[in-house]
Amino acid sequence: MNLSNHREKSIVVKKFGGTSVGSVDRIEGVAQRIVQDIESGQQPIIVLSAMSGETNRLIRMASEVNPNYRGRAYDMLLASGEQVSISLLAMALEKRGYSAKPLLAYQIGIKTSAIFSNARIQSIDTKKIQSVLDAGEIPIIAGFQGLTGEDITTLGRGGSDTTAVAIASALNSTVCEIFTDVPAIFTADPRIVKKAKELKQLSFEEMMEMASLGSKVLHYRSVELAAKFGVKIHLRSTFEQREGTWVVPEGETMEAPVVSSVTHDPSIAIIKIFPLPWNEGFMADLFFELSEKNVVVDIITQSHNEEGQRLAFSVSESDVPRALEIVNKLKPETSNVDVMKEVTKISAVGVGMKNHTGVAARFFKTLYAKNIPIHLVTTSEIKMSAVVAKKHLVEAANALHTEFGLDQ
Ligand code: ASP
Ligand code: MG
Hints:
- The chain is 33% helix and 28% strand.
- The protein is built from 11 helices and 18 strands.
- A hairpin with an 8-residue loop joins strand 4 and strand 5.
- The site of aspartic acid has 11 residues, from loops.
């Protein structure tokens, strides 16, 4: 089929997630949907994730060989999942009479920084994508991967969203469609808040907060890039035709509610150290070493009384062993270290907070009324977060959802 009159058609970057391409049948379904879009006048550029479960399977094999290895070979292994899904989709489109070209990062020059497993995209050679379009072929691009020198890199878990947005912005598209297994972004996780509602719209800023606070629906950097280049993200279901949620610049959202969502991060832990001597060298050394070892520290609190200084900070559960190794190496012998697991960070997010007072009061009052103790707190211009015991998560999330008017 000849698509070379594509210049009159609108170019749309469409990314399909792991579940959407989770089986051969599903891949056939995606091919069918792409055919419909072409027939309705679109010129699609496709970006895919690996088939669901595949990246995890590859990681498991890698850790059987060496649980601590990170680097070139690891990224090459992880990137292989997307090679499979793009090839199968290209075949499914060819079967339907469309010529499609599966493309790996090296073929379209997706250059990244040299940080394996967490690389950042630096540039994309749009001429190559353009020439595929000019040849009347549908580009089917492997998400999640890039190149540094001649080595393959990957962009971090969930990174194919970022590939899609980067391609959309490189091609000056104003929209990037992200197809997934949920119909929309919700006001809270519907598995824990039964009254969670679909959001029609959300600002980039809110979505970035949600992504960094534990919502897995979009890769953080994809939203960051979208905001920087003004690419609207339309997150929608692969299995339904209707629209989902639009993530757009703040000025384009409708009246901003004070709180637009309640988000949680289930897998954090708190490390407490007490007593510490009253000198600042320890803190500087500790946080330097933690960052050197790529342990991401989230909330930090520090206080002191006559007995000494008290320090508490939160990290993701999986980083606890590495963090403890560093703490135990640096801390004075007289300090005790205590790790709190089974905690979760619950947050209320909304751009409307910028212009409203009393949000903190309502947030704390709601948790207090349910007798839910708060272990750590952090805030920004558009969010309030508290660390609470995991056993209180459902109650806390539902109570905050109600308090901030999201049930209706
Ligand atoms: N396949 C990769 C992952 O599972 C990238 C992605 O799906 O976005 O993390
Ligand atoms: Mg994803």
